[in-house]
Design goal:
mainly alpha; 5 helices; 2 strands
Length: about 70
C-alpha cells in the first residue's frame, strides 16, 4: 500500500512529532508509515484521515499485487 502522508503533512507544515502526538502514536510510527515500512491499522488510518479532514482513500492508495 502506498500513501501520501508525508506530502500532505509537509503541505500543511506539520512536524512528525506534532502529528504523532495528535494521533497518540510515536514519531517512529509516523516515519515508518511515510517510508512505506508499516501499514496502519484501520483505526489509525481513520484517525489520520479525520485529522486531515480527508477520506482514507485520499491518503492511502491500495494497489493489488500481480500474481
Amino acid at each position: 500500500m502506498k500513501n501520501r502522508l508525508e506530502q500532505i503533512r509537509k503541505e500543511r507544515a506539520i512536524k512528525q512529532e506534532d502529528l504523532a502526538h495528535a494521533l497518540g502514536v510515536s514519531r517512529q510510527t509516523i516515519c515508518s508509515l511515510e517510508n512505506g515500512r508499516y501499514n496502519p491499522s484501520i483505526l489509525l488510518a481513520f484517525k489520520i484521515a479525520r485529522y486531515f479532514g480527508m477520506a482514507i482513500e485520499e491518503i492511502f492508495i491500495y494497489e493489488e499485487e500481480e500474481s
